[in-house]
Amino acid sequence: MTGRLLRYPLILNLAGVAALAMFLPCIHALAREDHHVARSFGYSGLLGIAAIAMIAVAMSGRRRRVESDLNNLLSLFLALSALPLFLAVPFHEALGTTRFLNAYFEMVSALTTTGATLFDTPGRLTETLHLWRGLVGWLGGLLIWIAASAVLAPLNLGGFEVTATAEPGQGDTRLDRFERANASKRIEQITATLAPVYAGLTLLLWILLVVGGERSFVAFIHAMSTMATSGISPVGGLSGGSGGFGAELAIFVFLLFALSRLTFSSDTLTSARPGFYNDPEFRLGVMLVVGVPLLLFARHWIAAYDVDSVENLETAARALWGGAFTVLSFLSTTGFESADWTAARDWSGLGTPGLILLGLSLVGGGVATTAGGVKLLRVYALYLNGRREMERLVHPSSVSRAGPRSRRIRRQGAFIAWIFFMLFALSLALVTVVMAALGQGFQEAIVLAISALSTTGPLTVVVGEDPLRLADIGAAAKLVYCAAMIVGRLETLAIIALLNPALWRD
């Protein structure tokens, strides 16, 4: 059955999954006796399944074509840009008091795991609509997990180009002598492997949050948002929940999965030594999670320090925890703010350390995870290259002790990483200029551009002195923000790979 479904284009299968997912909020609305919302999701799901079935029947008589990796990359691009049009239909019909553009914006934000929202007024959305936002974000995270191995890795994109021997957007020529599984078979195998892990971790986190005292519905949304690093919350963040420190601790542990895929897999190993302890991404991420809060904590002693007391010790502990949790949250591009983040800011003496959060979001998490940003592996490649160049300044005739794999990352990998950095910088500059031309101030345009390209929507709320309300920006600015979210999620190199003539030759 699965094999027959995978004969159809990937975008058609993804649309079918989206249509089936609409029945979960339909059931939730029926349980709450909200019949208008239930009809909106139920009818949209039924009409979607009917339309997809008719398209499948119409395509069944065609000669079967083997889906290539570039075709699946195109389907992934369409899933992030066109599929939200379908996802926005029940949201728009159920809410009934907003334009379709706003509903489309909300679905693009959720599917790309950005988490930016136009509906930040408490009570504007019902619980069912919050459930739909969280579910779409969760499915978007699963899509990125699967696409990283099934679509991006064979094309040496999404961070894999740093350690690969082939050029980005092309297969590895060393494997041409072997017969590799076709794209559809690979998607089937990777989905069967990763989907149970993703769902199991979400279920486990949900149980831990409920045990910690969080309300079941809020815990479910926060569990999905944590695994997808979307930062979607029905109560305005963790501070609006009732889980307290226990909920933050559980989320903190599960956010570590966004630093390196080696915590549950070995398909992105970058060294000959196994284990996530030896993984450079994980070590670099932990160093940032430990180092940045300690710097904020140490800054306290620049100002006057009161007499020692139990109250000061408690405040110090809260400040250290609030800094560590928030740093990991924004490094993983989730955007959850700790309830003790205010204590961390007061302790350090910084009113709003927004530049630090912007920098962490730009760095991002690990390769082949749901985190966005530039990725830790690219930062590590540039670090290796910079360290070697400094050694050569001191000893020009020195010979590196690194092995062939480390030399590959330090040379070709750093070169590709630098190209990506330049493309990212150009994208950031372009989005900033366009946003400024559409009426946004320079600071607001910078925040909007970084939050979209790094897929960290909560940056718009926590970076500035006053929250930036996305509902106040114009229609053109919203469309630009949607485009930036898609570019940030799929990455510039992957979009350039779509211009490959092999994709359009047939």
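the 2nd protein, sequnce then structure:
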Amino acid sequence: MTDTLYIADRAIGPDHPPYIIAEMSANHNGNLDAAFAIIEQAQKAGADALKIQTYTPETITLKSDAEDFCIKGGLWDGRTLYDLYAEAHTPWDWHKPLFEHAAKCGIPIFSSPFDTTAIDLLEDLGAPAYKIASFEAIDLPLIRYAASTGKPMIISTGMADDEEIGEAVAAAREAGCKELVLLHCVSGYPAPAEDYNLRTIPDMGARFGTLTGLSDHTLSNATAIASVALGACVIEKHFTLDRQGGGPDDSFSLEPEDLVSLCRDSKEAWAAMGQVNYGRKSSEQGNVTFRRSLYFVRDLKAGEVITEDAIRSVRPGYGLKPKLADALIGKRVKSDVSWGQATSWDVIEADD
């Protein structure tokens, strides 16, 4: 297993903050200026990368209104696959301007290719990585072709069972992929949080020997942030300028303010994970004195025996620890002590 991989010089792995991918998908709604604005807002929000999708309706489906090609139920009920993808696709002649604009904004951009010609286009543009979408996770020839580029790969696993995931990983590895992340995913749009079973994330990493992350289609950030505690080092969320924009994916995407929160809170969650550490933390140092300790609650003359009613466990913590009460009882003080004085071995007679 690779403990760390790099996309455009950004380290990804358990020892680094989660890598946040803002997925543009179809949220440009056919407007190149909107696509530019999405790139700009993703960078301002703190996302680590902007992702697009590279297909045309002809490369992803057939132009048919036969029953097999008609969508039944869900957000896109009644539409043909061809018509949906004709609306949703990112035109190929946009790709170069999008890559150039992302470079100008200072945010890496890469894509989900849906056939080999898409990979060829993205290679010409210098894409730093490839993302295989959940619906394509069973397309082993596509995975092999992407892997043959030697670029880091991210594979979403929505709808794939453990056997199919294993086949996808093997195909990528055998074709030359050395840097691989699997994203736990639920291919519902949107998906309810209770479908996510986030405990799958560490099991997936152990079972397939890869870094793991989350492709999150829930409507809030709670699931994504929780995934960090279970080892997710990559988080992908759909991103739009306006959830009410009317596009195919707008309704289940994050808006700019939401993306700002995701970038901030997921990194805070990662920082909170830290390491196994039972020692006193820096923020606790000043509060040590407010712990309990043993104080004299009766005046004693030198030579007097300390009785049970002569000491008491109270705050603050300048005296001996409460666990030493039994060790003090029955001993003599070697100098006068007064009510409210902290206990100390300095005033206790040593045993003969």
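The chain has two domains: 11-273, 289-347. The longest helix spans residues 256-273.
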